[in-house]
Design goal:
alpha+beta, 5-stranded antiparallel β-sheet, 16 helices, disordered C terminus
């Protein structure tokens, strides 16, 4: 089916109003399911809790429900009745952060409310919903945003729990399920959501998985299951699983001992253990998805993830029970690809002795908390990051060459990127990145999104090629164009037996900065005016500890591991290492390698990233070439031998990889992948995630 026709059909099937069969009594949210309530009451008998801390009033309501304690409910309701959004700081934050707990108090302790209190609360909370719906922020076009999902949650909980005494309750149910979820989010899924990555990142994106759980589960109890309408949530199981380090991880100078998410976009808690260890969002999601269809492969895999990570979760989710077995990972492929966000995960195994490569190929849209990380990659091996981005949230780092102005952790230099004059992808004017349909004006936005043109999953290796050429430029004569790239490609080959990531960058400089437009007053940016051959192209790589150079190799010691970069092109690399630390932001900074290519219109980088155990022999790497191709030979006394042939030129095509005696051509198309109720399945065709809202 053609993509446009598919989208039209999907849109046509998601406009009918959802009619839930809501009972007249309470509770309705989560514990309207009698079996779930009985399970929680039994669990409370063996594992009670005492209300305390910031959640004390919510926990009183929960305990009041489970034990029929009216005193607990009365205390919680006093808090609800006195709560006014204007008394609790920023409206958006107050409703997003506290809305769920307040509305659950209303539902779970409803029997203790007087008619007058109900009337007051209905008018008050209808007004809160109206203001949120009319807001110019976190509505249509912000479907990955944490505030957007707070509003989905609040509207749906409020509609369900006030149904029957609120004449507008169905409006809020409709807006949550028909407009936000089945219309707006369905469109976002087709553009950037396929594959289940939570695009706002490890700190903020994860709430797209956790915020909807209670209202979506309740909607399913009453006849409409949102989880059955979209593959996003079953795909998110694998985006999460493959986006987590295969074993416990140590960061130099900070966190040690638990699994971490590979950081991306704003991540302010990485050095405290990240979302897995410092928060409850992902543990809640994992516990629920592990219990929802418990015999499915999806449930088995997410329970195994929860066993692996020990991610924190709330009491009411622990009450669901269920255990995981790490042996369930055995039926999973070693690679996973999420085409919406452009994230490709590739590993040698699913245990703590593995090596993993995490590729951030795209620039997913409709999000805040965004970093300029298109084309970045991270590498993990046996408990250490051989290389990772310099994670943070508005933290400062040393600028390019260590001499320019300081940069923010959202800057391309904070990531392992390919740069032209110290920048990568084009600037978006407005809320982008967005998908702009063919024929629609792009105005000053980038000429296109990054395009994955080749992708391949094999038992012994993975391969991907991405064309960034249009994504690195804005429309012609744009005030925000960065006029230095004519062609920009990245190719990654991860050779599993050799534990080697090969990166080939193809660059063709542009002389557009010499055009009159960029010498006049219309160009808002500041950059050099140079011929195409003099455009500075830079390969960026980060190390947690200070690396040492030896010829064409750069290595850094990381506990029992050694990270190593081997440069084959240029033949005589000049490594520039910048200590990124800025006073006050020392934890964010690392050691940044800047490797330049200047002096020719066409420029290439060919690098290998690998790692070793203490005392292990190094990887041998030699390069030969002819008029049309390069052949990279890799040898190791234990890991074996491989020979990779890549063709020259400014576009990616052809090539082959020989491992031992087996030669495999590199695909010239994109290999398909889908997620069933059992597991991710790689296909032989080129239809990637053709399924959408179902």
């Amino acid at each position: 089916m053609r993509p446009i026709l598919l989208a039209l059909l999907l849109h046509a099937t998601t406009t009918a109003a959802v009619n839930l069969q809501i009972p007249s009594g309470h509770p309705r949210i989560w514990y309207g399911n009698a079996a779930r309530l009985a399970q929680a009451q039994t669990y409370f008998g063996s594992t009670p809790f005492t209300p305390q801390g910031n959640d004390i009033q919510f926990e009183r309501a929960l305990r009041g429900l489970l034990t029929a304690n009216n005193g607990d409910c009365d205390a919680a309701l006093a808090h609800l009745n006195g709560w006014l959004v204007e008394n609790h700081g920023n409206r958006r934050d107050a409703l997003r952060q506290q809305g769920e707990e307040l509305l659950l108090i209303y539902d779970w302790c409803h029997h203790r409310l007087t008619p007058a209190q109900i009337q007051t609360l209905v008018a008050r909370w209808n007004g809160y919903m109206d203001v949120e719906i009319a807001d110019d922020f976190a509505n249509h076009g912000a479907e990955a945003n944490n505030y957007f999902w707070g509003r989905v949650r609040n509207e749906l909980i409020w509609g369900i729990t006030s149904f029957g005494e609120n004449p507008r309750a169905q409006e809020f149910i409709n807006h949550a399920l028909d407009t936000r979820f089945s219309d707006w989010f369905a469109d976002f899924y087709q553009d950037f959501g396929r594959g289940g990555v939570f695009p706002e990142g490890a700190d903020y994106g994860v709430v797209s998985l956790s915020y909807p759980i209670l209202p979506f589960a309740s909607a399913a109890d009453y006849g409409f299951d949102p989880y059955a309408q979209t593959p996003y949530y079953r795909e998110a199981i694998y985006a999460l699983l493959y986006g987590t380090t295969p074993g416990p991880t140590t960061l130099s100078g900070s966190f040690s001992g638990g699994a971490l998410l590979f950081p991306f976009n704003d991540d302010e808690t990485l050095h405290q253990g990240g979302t897995i260890n410092a928060r409850e969002y992902l543990g809640d999601f994992a516990r629920w998805m592990g219990a929802r269809a418990p015999t499915s492969g999806n449930a088995r895999h997410i329970r195994a993830w929860l066993t692996q990570t020990g991610a924190g979760r709330r009491w009411m989710f622990d009450a669901l029970g269920g255990s995981g077995n790490l042996s369930d990972y055995a039926d999973l492929p070693l690679d996973y690809y999420a085409p919406g966000a452009g994230v490709f995960s590739s590993r040698t195994g699913h245990d703590a002795a593995a090596m993993q490569v995490q590729l951030q190929l795209g620039t997913p849209g409709h999000i805040e908390h965004r970093h300029q990380d298109g084309g970045s990659f991270q590498v993990w091996r046996k408990g250490r990051f051989l290389s990772r981005e310099s994670a943070g949230y508005a933290d400062n780092l040393r600028g390019f060459m260590g001499a320019g102005p300081n940069i923010d952790t959202g800057h391309p230099l904070a990531h392992n990127t390919l740069l032209f004059e110290a920048w990568n992808t084009g600037r978006w004017v407005g809320s982008g990145p967005i998908v702009i349909p063919p024929g629609q004006p792009r105005f000053e936005n980038p000429r296109d999104l990054p395009r994955v043109t080749r992708l391949q999953h094999e038992p012994a290796f993975s391969f991907v090629a991405i064309d960034y050429s249009d994504a690195y430029r804005n429309m012609p004569d744009s005030r925000v164009d960065w006029p230095y790239a004519d062609q920009a490609w990245r190719e990654f080959v991860f050779i599993r037996p050799l534990q080697a990531l090969v990166i080939l960058d193809r660059t063709h400089g542009s002389a557009d900065s010499l055009l009159p437009w960029y010498n006049g007053g219309g160009w808002l940016l500041s950059g050099p005016h140079v011929a195409a051959a003099q455009v500075r192209r830079s390969f960026i790589l980060h190390f947690e500890t200070q690396p040492v150079a030896a010829g064409n190799r750069l290595s850094a010691a990381l506990g029992t591991q050694t990270a190593e970069l081997i440069t084959l092109i240029p033949a005589a690399p000049v490594y520039r290492v910048i200590h990124e630390d800025v006073p006050g932001d020392e934890q964010a900074g690392q050691y940044r390698l800047e490797l330049d290519s200047v002096g020719s219109v066409d420029g290439y980088f060919l690098n290998v990233v690998t790692g070793y155990d203490a005392g292990e022999a190094p990887l041998g790497a030699t390069l030969s070439e002819d008029a049309s191709s390069w052949t990279l030979s890799l040898t190791h006394p234990v890991r074996g031998n491989a020979s990779l042939t890549l063709f020259k030129g400014m576009t990616s095509a052809g090539g082959s990889l020989t491992i031992g005696a087996i030669t495999t051509p590199l695909r010239n198309d994109v290999q398909g992948i889908s997620v069933t109720s059992e597991r991710p399945v790689w296909a032989g065709g080129d239809a990637v995630f053709a399924n959408g809202f179902e």
